[in-house]
Design goal:
Layout lengths: L7 H18 L16 H23 L15 H24 L1 H16 L4 H22 L16
Length: 162
């Protein structure tokens, strides 16, 4: 059985709430456009629902793995670095979501991928930058060019709304 980290259920619960909120807010952007085309709210809805389901499953798993009150095994705190990593990614995701209205989705996404690659995964800065640029270009190609889904452009209007 895997070891449960103290606070892990709280992280999964917060991520579940955040992703469910993201899915709920997506309806304000419009899930579809005229003619049944995919609208700008489709991506946040799909990713919010998927992330909510995954978070719920992980929350359930972590709650089931929780030690009973009479369990004196202190081995459940064996890897605090893993919990720090989980909180770091959660914080970076929250920061990226808060940046979307200012920078737009593509810039916020690119910064998120860069930060996770460089600071969480400890990749070299050049490698992290390349991964971030490629990931952002793929998202742009798939959603803006191929699916014609306008992404939030933020105050600077970068990469989306059109």
């Amino acid at each position: 059985m895997r070891r449960l980290l103290r606070g892990e259920p709280a992280v999964w619960a917060l991520l579940l709430c955040l992703s469910a909120t993201m899915a709920a807010v997506s309806f304000g952007y419009g899930i579809t456009k005229e003619g049944g085309q995919v609208g700008p709210g489709f991506l946040p809805l799909a990713s919010g629902v998927a992330l909510a389901l995954i978070s719920a499953a992980c929350l359930l798993q972590s709650v089931r793995a929780a030690p009973s009150p009479d369990d004196t095994d202190t081995d459940t705190d064996a890897d605090p670095a893993r919990l720090r990593t989980l909180w770091t990614v959660f914080g970076l995701l929250l920061a990226a979501l808060l940046l979307v209205p200012l920078t737009g989705f593509l810039v916020a996404f690119g910064l998120l991928v860069f930060a996770v690659s460089a600071f969480v995964e400890k990749q070299r800065l050049l490698s992290a930058a390349i991964v971030a640029v490629v990931a952002t270009l793929v998202i742009y190609a798939v959603f803006v060019l191929f699916l014609a889904v306008p992404l939030p452009g933020g105050m600077f209007g970068v990469g989306g709304d059109g």
